[in-house]
Amino acid sequence: xxxxxVSTKKGLFVFEGEPGSxxxxxxxxxxxxxxxxxxxxxxxxxxxxxxxxxxxxxKIFSTDDPAGEWEQAGGVALPEGxxxxxxxxxxxxxxxxxxxxxxxxDPGTLFQSTDGGASWxxxxxxxxxxxxxxxQPGGGGLCVHSIVPWPGDAERLSVAVSAxxxxxxxxxxxxxxxxxxxxxxxxxxDEVLEQxxxxxxxxxxxxxxxxxxxxxxxxxxxxxxxxxxxGVYRSDDAGQSWTEIGAGLPSDFGFPLxxxxxxxxxxxxxxxxxxxxxxxxxxxxxxxxxxxxxxxxSPRGDGLPQEQAYLTVLRQAxxxxxxxxxxxxxxxxxxxxxxxxxxxxxxxxxxxxxxPPVYSVSxx
Amino acid sequence: MPxxxxxxxxxxxxxxxxxxELDALTVGELLRELERAHPQTGGWILDERGLIRRHIxxxxxxERGSEQTPVELTDRVEVLPAITGG
Lengths: 364, 86
What we know:
Chain A is mainly β and about 375 residues long. Chain A has helices at about 125, 190-195; strands spanning about 1-10, 10-15, 25-30, 35-40, 45-55, 55-65, 70, 90-95, 100-105, 110-115, 120, 145-150, 155-160, 165-170, 175-180, 210-215, 225-230, 230-235, 245, 255-260, 265-270, 285-290, 300, 320, 330, 340, 350, 360-364.
C-alpha cells in the first residue's frame, strides 16, 4: 500500500492505494490553506507539512495522524528584529543523522532540525554567507528548493537556490561553497557570462543561476542531475561541474526531475515548452527518461493524456517510491490531475483528476 | 486596559480566549504582550520584523490601525484576517 501526500493550494490530501488501481482519499488537512510540501519521515513515522497561510505566514506542522491534531514546530522564523521575514517553506528533506531534517525556504533559507521536526534552527552558514547580498531571486522568490544529502555522510549536503545556484557543504553546514561550473544561463548576455571565466570571479560577477530542481544518484553520490531554467545537466564530480545533457528532449525547459535510486545513469524530466509557455509540448503529457546518463532520452506517456493536454507540473510535484523496474512514479499538475506509474514510468494511470492546483507530491 | 479581540485560529492559540485585556501603549506593544502571554501566537500576527502581516487587519475602535497606533485604556482592538484569497 502506497501513501501519497498531495500538497495543494487548498490543503493537504492523503491518498492510499496501489499503482494501477484506484487510490482512496483517506484524509484531508489544512483545508483551504496552501500547503507547499508534506512528507512522512519513514524513520519516525511522523508526517510533516509546510503551510503558507496568506494571513498568518509560513509554518511547519507535524503529526502521527493526518486526520488528527497537528503540532506547530518551533523555530521556523528568521532572526527577530531583522529586515526580512520568512516568506515560504518550499521543501522538507530527511538528513542522514538520526532525527535530522532540513527545510528549504524563501528568502534563501535553510532550516535544520535534530529532533525529527519538532524544533528548527536557521542554518547560519548559508544565511550569513558573505555573498548573500548578491543573490537574486527567481520568479518564485529566493527559494532553497532542493536539498540533497550525501548517503551515509551527515556532514555533506548540497542545496540548490533559485536563482543563486548550487551550494555544497562538507562540514555539516558551517561553511558553503559554490558548485556551478558549466551551468549556462542563456537568459543573460554573453558579457555577464564572460566574467565567470575570471580565475576568481568576484561575488558580484555571479549571474542569476536559476536551478529549477536538483537530485543526487544515491548509488553513486558523485552523480547529480539538474533541471535548469533552460538546460538539463549532469555532474560526475559531486556537483562541482556540470555537463549539458538536454539534447534529444522536445524542450530542455521544465521544473521537476527524478532519478531511479537503483540506477545512477537514470533521470526523468517532464519537459515544458519554454520559459514563456510553461505547458506540456504539443498538448501531450510525456515524461522523458534516460538510462544512459543523458546520452539519449525516451518518451514515457503510455496512459497519460495525449490530446489537448496543456499541463504545468511544478518542481516538487513529481516523486518516486521504491526503485528499479517496479519503481512507482507520481506527478500532479497545477490543473489538479494526479498520475501514477508502478513500472518506472512505462505505463500510467489516473490517481485523481479534479484536485486543487498541486504544489507537491510525496510517496511512502 | 485595552481590550483585544481575536478571531479564527488566533483564539485557540490564545488559550481559547476571544478577548483579552493587555497592558500596552501602542498596537505593536499590545500584540507583543499577546505573544508574551500566549507564546503560541508568536509569528501569527507580527512577522520577524515586528510588522503586522500583510493580510491581517487591526482595527482600533473600528478604525484601521498600524503597529504605531496609540491605544488607550478603554480602547477596543480587533485582529481580523483581510478579505483575500482565490
